[in-house]
C-alpha cells in the first residue's frame, strides 16, 4: 500500500517531516511507499509555494476536508490546534502524528489519548529525540543493566532566542496558544527521554519564571515611527526547573530556558547508576559518553558503527549524522506502523490486539508527559510537591 | 609579628592547611611570618607523628589549653565539634578559621556568628573555592557587568565514594556528627559560590535522598568471621537537589551527590546572564569558559596569566596550578587579616571599625550558607518552598 | 534547463551524490532542475537495484555510451578509472565531476587537467570538505585577515580500518588501482584544504609506511577450509606524514593513517597566525574553534546561524548538520555552474571567458594536489626535500 | 645522611626545584633529609634575596667553590653554562642534576655523559614530564602491552610568547647561548617522552624555521626615545617539525613552536598501537585519554586515584595536582638515588655496580636526546633524512 499523508503546517516542522518522508526510499528501502498527498494551511499563496517545494501533490485550507481522506494525518500546527483536528482524524480512523507537547493542557491531551484508544490506530507524539542513534544506544545499555540501578537523571534544554528583551512576541509566548513556554516546548522532550530511558515521573516540584513580561509585535513599523511600538504580554514561562522522583527511586532534575545566552539547542542528558553512567548532548548528537563497569572514566563513543541503531542505513563509521536524521527514523517507524496496521485489518488494524501497532511514543506517551508538565505548573503555583496523576 | 597558629585536626584538612602555611614564605613573601605552633588531637601517637610530618612545634590533646595561647585557631575537626572550641577561642579574642559547613545546625552556626561579632576579630569559614584564580576571575567579570543581568545559576558537586553500598560507615554518615550529608559537605561550597558570585539565596525548594540506609562498620573483622558484620544507620542525605531564587531575580538550581558513579570531585558552576555566560569545573580548575558579549561561543580561558588573580606568585602562563593552591591563597588572605588586625589594636584589632578585618568568607558568610542548608532541609521535610531566614 | 546527470559508480560515493542531487529541490530551490539520468556500472543486477534505490531513470554498462549524452558526468569509480572516462567526457564537451584524488599518478592528472582546459566546461574534483560551513567560515576569517600572517598549518586524517592485519585486501591496497594509500585517499583532502585556506604547497619532505605487507582475499572460503587463505600484496602506504612549506612562508605538517586505532574519520585542521588561530575536526563538523584577536582562548563557535555559509537553507541555530550535507552544497555549486555555463553558450559556455565557469575545486585544483602527492612520494623515495612542480 | 644541595640558578627553575625540595618532608617522608645548602649566582643582591626566599643557607658567586663541597649539584643555568660546571662537579664525584637540553651541542653533551660515566654517581637530565602521574600511568599501560604494537607517536609542544615580533630578545634567541630554539627548549621534552614511552629514535627528517630575524633589546629606553631601538639577531629556530622512525618501527612526528598564538604550554602526546591508543595534554595534566582494547572510544581517566603513580602522597581522588608537582616527584627520585648511592659506598656508591644508581633520565638519556636534536638540525641543513648516531 502507498501511505498517503496529509500534513497540517508547512513551516519548520513541515519541512522537517517532508524531508524525512522524501528520504525514506533511498535509505530505508523496506519502508512503505509514501505519498506526500496534501499540505494544509490557511495562507493560499504561501501554501502553494510550500507544497511545491516540499513535494506535496495537493493543498487544502481546511483540515476537515483532509483528515478522512488520508492514510495518516500529521498535525504540525501550534499547540492550540492540536486537539480538534487530531481527534477528528482519529474519529475517522486515521492514524495521527502530532507535534509535542500533545496539547495546551491536560484536558486536551486526555481527549486526544481517549480518541486514540477508541480508534485503535497508530498514533505518534513527535518526540523525535528518542530516535537519535546515541539515545537508542543508551536505552539498550540501560535495559541490559550496564548502568545498574539508576540513581540520578538530569536533563537540561537550553536556548537563548529570548535573552534579548526586544526579541519579538510570537505564539510561543502566549499561554492561550502554546499552553506553556520553555516547559512545554523544551521540557516535554526532556521528560519524554526520562520516561523512555528510566521510567515514569511520580512526583515533582516545579519552578517557572518569566523574565520579560511583554514583547514588541514584529513588523509594527507605524508604531515604531510614532515611538509607540505595540507590545503583547508574555503569558508563559521563559524558563523552568523541576525536581522529581522517578519510578524505581531515581532522583531527577529537569531544567530549560530560552534565556541561556550562548546556548542554541543544547539538550543534555546525564544518568548515573550504581554500575555506570552516561552523558548525551544534542549539539554533539553522534557521541555518547559512557562510563562502563570496569572502566574508570567516561568513554566517548562515536555512535556511527554499522551495528549501532539505524546507522547501517546511512554512511560508514565516523561519517556523522545531523539533527534532521532523527525525523527520518521517526517517520520510518511511524509510517511502518501505519502500514502494518493497515495491512492487517484493511484500514485501522495493527500488530497489536487493538490495532494500534506498538509504535511509541504514541498519544498515551504524550499524555503521560502532559501530566508531568501539568503537575510542574501546579507545583509552581502551589509552592509544594505534587503527585503526578 | 609572627602568627602562632593552633590547629585542631590532623587528617585531610590538617595536611591541606599545614601545607598552605608552609608554602607562604617562598611564594607570598609579604605574608606574615607564621609558626605552626601546636597541633591538637586525641590520639597521642598519631598526633606526634602528624606534628612531626606537618611541621608543628608542639602538640596538645585538649583544645581548651590552646585557644587562648595562639594568635589564630584553626578548627578542622568534624562538624559536631565546630561550635564549642570556636566559640571558646572567640571568647578568648582569638581569630578562628573553621572548616565548612560552619556547624551541624542553624543554632550552632548562630552561636558561632554571634561570638564572632562579639569578639570583633577576623574569622573564616573555609570555603576555599572562592580562592581559585578562575573563580576570582569570574567574580571580576560579573562585577564589571560583563555578563549583564544574571538569569541562571547552576551548581553541582558530584562524587561517587558511597555508590558502593558496602562502602564503610563514617562520621560523615551521621546526622549527629555531620548535621547533613552531601548537602552540608558539598552543597555548602556551591551555595557559598552562588552568594559570592551572584547574591543571597532568598527562597528554596529542597529534595534530599538517602539511597543506602545502613553501612558496615569498617574493620569489624570478628563480625565478618561470624558472618555478622556490624552496621550503623545512615542518618544523612546521600544526595540533594534544590531550586532557588537568588537576590536580584536569578533562578538557581543546586545539586550534589555521593552516588554519581565516575565523578570524583566534580564541582561545576554555570552562570548565564543577559550579556554573557560562564562555566567552571573544579577538575579543570585552571580553566574558565566565558561567553563574552560580541563573541558567539564559549572561550576557554586558561587562567594562568601573570595578571590573573594570585597567579603572579606562582609560575609562567600555562604552568597549571592544583587543588591545594586554593588553600595557600585562603591562608594568605586570612593570616594577613589576622596580622593586620593584631597590628592595629595590639590583640584583637583589625582594618575595620570593629577590628574584624574585612576578611571574607567569615562566620557571617558561614551562617548565611547554614541558613540556606537549613531551609533546604526544612523544605524537604515540609514538601514546600521555604523562605531563607 | 534540466541537467541530466550520468553517474559512474553506485556504491558509497554513488549514494552520497545521488542523495545530494535528490535533496536540492527542497533546500536549494534556486538550483537547476536535475535529472538522475543514467547510472553506469558493470554488474547488471546490482546496477538495476541501485538505480531503483538511488532514483536513476536508466542504467548503462559502458560509460562510452553515456559521456556524450548527458549534461554532466560524475566519475565516482576507483582511482584507476578516473582518467579515460573523464577525458572522453571532456572531449565530448561534457562537464565532469571526478572523485579524489584526480588520478593514480601525475601523468593521468595532467591529461585530465589538459582535457578540462581544452573543453572549457566546468569540472570538479570532489574535495567535498571545502563545503563544510565551518570550513567556509574559516576561509572567510582568513581572507578577512582575522588570523594575520599564517605561521602554521597542521592537517591530520586518521582512520583505523586497516589496524587489524586480517582486514581484507581491497582495491584501495593496490598501487595499480589506487595510486597510493592513505596519502591519496585521505591526504588529498588535507592538502586541498591547505591550498584552499592558506596557499599552494611549495616544497615537501614525505614519509610513507606500509605496516602490513599482505592481506587476505575476502571470501576465500575454500582456501580458509584448506588453511591456505589466499593473500594479495599491499603495494600502497598504510600511513604517511609530510613536512611542507606553503606559499607565503607557512610551515605545514600533514599526516594520515589507516592504523590509528580508535579514530574513524578524524580529519583535523589547525591553523595558527600572527593574530589568531583556529581548529576544526570533521567528527564535530558543526563546530569551529577560533582564537580571535582580543580574546585569550579558543571560542567554540557552532556554525549553525542563519548567516553562516549555506546554513539558511537548512534548520534553525543549533540544529546540526551531518557529513552528507557537504555533498549537497558541492552538488549545488557544481550543478549551478554547469547550468550557468550551458545557459550562456548553449552547450559548453559558462560565466568565464572560456566557458569553464568559476567553479572550484576544479581539475586544475585536482592537479595541483596531485603534484603535491607525487612530490611526497618522490621525497619519500629519495629521502630528501622535493620542490613541488 | 642529609643531602646538601648546591643550586646554580635562582630564577624560574631555581624556584621550581627549591619548592620541590621544600615539600618533600611533608609529602614524601621516606625521602632523605635535604638541606638547601648553597645558591649560586652572579648578582649578589638578587642572589641574597633569592636565597632568603627560596630557603638556602648560603650563597656563592662562583660555582667552582661549590661543586666539591655539596652532596648534589643542580645546574639550572642557561644551556651554554651546562657543560663546564657539570663536568667539574662530576670530576669531584658530586652527583649532578642538569636542566634540559643537556648542552648546546652534541660535543658538550658527550663530554657531560663521559664525565658521568667516569664518575659513577647519579646524574639527572631534568626531563620533569616523565614524572607526571598520567605519563607514568601511560608508561605502565604500554609496558603491559595494553596498546599492542606501537604504530604512531605524535608529540607537539606549542607556545606563543614570541608570536609578537616586538617581544624582546633573550638568551633563548641566541645560538651561542641556547644551542637551538624551540627545538632544544621544547622539542627535547617531546623526544625524551618518545624515548621513555616508545623507544629510541633511529632516523629523522627535520625542518627548522625562524619567522622573525631580530628582536629589540629589552629596556633600551634611551634608544626608544631616539627612535633607534637596539636589536639583536635571532640565531635559533622559532619553530621546528620533524618526522622520525623509532625503534621497533613506530612512525613519529614531532613539532614545537613559540609562534602558536593562543597556546601557552601546550605539550600533547598521542600514541596509537595495534590494540589501543592514548592522548595526553600538559595543560590538563591530571587526565589521560585511553582507548583500551574492548572499548570503542577514548576514556578520560582522571589519574588521581590512590594507586596511581605518586598520587597516594598527595590528596584524595579528584583533587588535582599542578605542574610543579612533577618537580617534587623528580627531586624525590633523584635525591633518593643520591642518598642511596652515598649510603652504599660512602661517597659515590649506588644501587648499581658502578654506583650511578638506576636513576633515569640521566646524562646518558640527555645525550641520547641531544643526538636526536643534533640530527634534526643536520637534516634541516642538508635537506635529507639523517640517521641518529
SSE arrangement:
The structure is a homotetramer of 389-residue chains.
Chain A: E1 2-8, H1 12-27, E2 33-40, H2 44-54, E3 58-60, E4 72-75, H3 83-91, E5 96-98, H4 106-119, E6 123-125, H5 133-143, E7 150-158, H6 175-178, H7 182-197, E8 201-209, E9 214-216, H8 221-226, E10 231-233, E11 239-246, E12 250-257, E13 266-273, E14 277-281, E15 287-291, E16 299-302, H9 325-345, H10 363-382, E17 386-387
Parallel strand pairs in A: 1-2, 1-4, 2-3, 4-5, 5-6, 7-12
Antiparallel strand pairs in A: 7-13, 8-11, 8-17, 9-10, 11-12, 13-14, 14-15, 15-16
Can you give keywords for this protein?
homotetramer, 389 residues, alpha/beta, Rossmann fold, Dihydrodipicolinate Reductase, domain 2, 2 domains, 9-stranded mixed beta sheet, 10 helices, globular, oxidoreductase (chains A, B, C, D), Gfo/Idh/MocA family protein (chains A, B, C, D), GFO_IDH_MocA-like_dom (chains A, B, C, D), oxidoreductase activity (chains A, B, C, D), Gfo/Idh/MocA_oxidrdct_glycsds (chains A, B, C, D)
Structure description:
The structure is a homotetramer of 389-residue chains. Chain A has 389 residues and is of the alpha/beta class. The first copy, chain A, folds into 2 domains: 2-129 and 324-358, Rossmann fold (3-Layer(aba) Sandwich), CATH 3.40.50; 133-284 and 286-319 and 371-387, Dihydrodipicolinate Reductase, domain 2. Chain A is built from 10 helices and 17 strands. Chain A has helices spanning 12-27, 44-54, 83-91, 106-119, 133-143, 175-178, 182-197, 221-226, 325-345, 363-382; strands at 2-8, 33-40, 58-60, 72-75, 96-98, 123-125, 150-158, 201-209, 214-216, 231-233, 239-246, 250-257, 266-273, 277-281, 287-291, 299-302, 386-387. Residues 347-351 of chain A have low confidence and may be disordered. Chains in contact: A-B, A-C, A-D, B-C, B-D, C-D. Chains A, B, C, D: Residues 3-122 form the Gfo/Idh/MocA-like oxidoreductase N-terminal domain.
Amino acid at each position: 500500500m502507498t501511505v498517503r499523508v496529509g500534513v497540517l503546517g508547512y513551516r519548520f516542522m513541515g519541512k522537517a517531516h517532508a524531508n524525512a518522508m522524501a528520504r525514506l526510499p533511498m535509505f530505508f528501502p523496506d519502508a512503505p511507499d509514501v505519498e506526500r498527498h496534501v499540505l494544509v494551511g490557511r495562507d493560499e499563496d504561501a501554501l502553494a509555494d510550500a507544497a511545491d517545494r516540499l513535494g506535496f501533490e495537493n493543498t487544502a485550507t481546511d483540515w476537515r476536508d483532509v483528515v478522512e481522506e488520508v492514510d495518516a494525518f500529521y498535525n504540525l500546527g501550534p499547540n492550540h490546534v492540536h486537539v480538534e483536528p487530531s481527534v477528528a482524524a482519529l474519529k475517522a480512523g486515521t492514524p495521527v502524528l502530532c507535534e509535542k507537547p500533545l496539547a495546551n493542557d491536560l484536558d486536551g491531551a486526555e481527549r486526544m489519548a481517549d480518541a486514540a484508544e477508541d480508534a485503535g490506530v497508530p498514533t505518534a507524539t513527535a518526540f523525535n529525540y528518542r530516535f537519535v542513534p546515541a539515545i537508542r544506544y543508551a536505552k539498550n545499555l540501560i535495559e541490559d543493566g550496564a548502568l545498574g540501578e539508576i540513581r540520578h537523571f538530569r536533563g537540561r534544554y537550553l536556548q537563548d532566542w529570548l535573552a534579548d528583551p526586544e526579541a519579538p512576541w510570537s505564539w510561543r509566548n502566549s499561554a492561550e496558544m502554546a499552553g506553556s513556554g520553555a516547559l512545554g516546548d523544551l521540557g516535554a522532550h526532556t521528560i519524554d527521554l526520562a520516561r523512555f530511558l528510566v521510567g515514569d515521573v511520580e512526583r515533582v516540584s516545579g519552578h517557572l519564571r518569566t523574565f520579560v513580561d511583554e514583547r514588541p509585535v514584529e513588523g509594527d513599523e507605524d508604531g515604531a515611527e510614532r515611538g509607540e511600538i505595540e507590545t503583547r504580554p508574555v503569558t508563559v514561562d521563559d524558563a523552568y526547573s523541576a525536581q522529581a522522583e522517578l519510578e524505581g527511586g531515581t532522583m531527577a532534575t529537569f531544567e530549560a530556558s530560552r534565556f541561556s545566552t550562548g546556548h542554541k539547542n543544547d539538550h543534555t542528558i546525564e544518568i548515573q547508576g550504581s554500575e555506570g553512567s552516561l552523558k548525551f548532548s544534542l549539539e554533539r548528537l553522534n557521541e555518547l559518553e559512557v562510563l562502563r563497569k570496569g572502566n574508570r572514566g567516561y568513554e566517548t563513543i562515536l555512535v556511527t558503527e554499522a551495528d549501532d541503531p539505524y546507522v547501517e542505513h546511512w554512511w560508514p563509521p565516523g561519517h556523522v549524522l545531523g539533527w534532521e536524521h532523527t525525523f527520518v527514523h521517526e517517520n520510518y517507524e511511524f509510517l511502518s506502523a501505519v502500514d502494518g496496521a493497515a495491512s492487517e485489518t484493511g484500514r485501522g488494524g495493527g500488530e497489536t490486539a487493538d490495532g494500534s501497532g506498538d509504535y511509541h511514543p504514541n498519544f498515551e506517551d504524550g499524555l503521560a508527559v502532559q501530566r508531568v508538565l501539568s503537575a510542574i505548573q501546579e507545583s509552581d503555583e502551589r509552592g509544594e510537591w505534587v503527585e503526578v496523576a
